[in-house]
Amino acid sequence: MLEEISEYLEKLRSTILSGDSDSAREIAKILKEKNVNPVDVVNNAIKPAMDEMGKKYENLEVFLPELVLAGEAAQEVLEVLLPKEMESSFIKGKVVIGTIYGDIHDIGKNIVAAILRANGYKVIDLGYDVPPRNFVETAKKEGAKIIGMSCLLTPSMFYMRDVITRLIDEGIRDKFYVIIGGAAVYPDWAREIGADGWAKDAERAVQLCDTLLEKGHELPKPVILGEWR
Ligand code: B12
């Protein structure tokens, strides 16, 4: 990566960390003008900033207001870098996505939704704090092939199982691929609840959807893409 771009990414990381939304937006605009891949911005600025913020919060070095500001700054950057027009003209398949019930973290989910759109998926985004039945009802109504759930809050991850239980109870489990992600969930959790896949990040979420749609029926489940932690 060019040295100049690395410097901007580093500046962006510290700007998000300090919760300065205005400066974050300005740096994001510069990166956009320079045609930097949004995935590189996520991996080299947003994710490291958020991880560092999480650690500081855990160590009581920062508190909720700082967390809120950093989250807002990250969302500003995404608004600049991941505009709606990235939606591509050909459609590989439909994905219903949302953050599971009780959990309001949506930055990672928004990134996954945008990168899926940019890669040929029609994405129906249910937002955050989504009750299990909404995933199932929307997927049925929209004829989606994939249900994607995000979770960052440990107590909420148990609701992911409810989505799969509902599909089983309605006798339609085999009509959908269920994929999960987000910092609270891990490959063994996907195995335990009988999900079809887990991916570490947005790029791999695209690979996961591609793989499941191409040869999902012949692969052992869950399909795991990326190392956990
Ligand atoms: C920003 C943030 C917030 C913001 C959220 C803003 C927003 N709009 O999302 C605010 C301030 C609102 C917030 C609130 C809270 N937070 Co908070 N938050 C964070 C923080 C710092 C960053 C999260 C983030 O955005 N990461 C960056 C994104 C890009 O990463 P990601 O979500 O993991 O997504 C990537 C992958 O996981 C994957 N992916 C994501 N979703 C999906 C879905 C699928 C299908 C696939 C395949 C892949 C995939 O792709 C993404 C892109 O690469 C984390 C710490 C951390 N390191 O995660 C704590 C953290 C998640 N929060 C935490 C807590 C405790 C809370 C609160 C309960 C605090 C409180 N006392 O009120 C509340 C939650 C309220 C609720 N009901 O949800 C804890 C959770 C602990 C736990 N495991 O249960 C953490 C881990 C902090 C900590 N270390 O203690 N938080």
Draw up the topology in text:
Elements: H1 3-17, H2 21-33, H3 38-58, H4 64-81, E1 93-99, H5 107-118, E2 121-125, H6 132-142, E3 146-150, H7 158-169, E4 177-181, H8 187-193, E5 197-199, H9 202-215, E6 223-225
Helix pairs in contact: 1-2, 1-3, 2-4, 3-4, 5-9, 6-7
The chain binds cobalamin (B12).
Question: What do you see in this structure?
Answer:
- The chain has helices spanning 3-17, 21-33, 38-58, 64-81, 107-118, 132-142, 158-169, 187-193, 202-215; strands spanning 93-99, 121-125, 146-150, 177-181, 197-199, 223-225.
- It has a six-stranded parallel beta sheet, with helices on both faces.
- By secondary structure, it is an alpha/beta fold.
- It has two domains: 3-81, Methionine synthase domain (Methyltransferase, Methionine Synthase (B12-binding Domains), Chain A, domain 1, Orthogonal Bundle); 87-225, Rossmann fold (3-Layer(aba) Sandwich), CATH 3.40.50.
- 54% of the residues lie in helices and 12% in strands.
- It is globular, with a radius of gyration of 18 Å.
- β3 (146-150), α7 and β4 form a beta-alpha-beta unit.
- Bound molecules: cobalamin.
- The site of cobalamin has 41 residues, from α3, α4, α5, β3 and β4.
- Cobalamin is lined by residues 42, 46-47, 50-51, 53-54, 57-58, 64, 67-68, 70-71, 102-109, 111-112, 148-150, 152-154, 179-184, 199, 201-202, 205, 208.
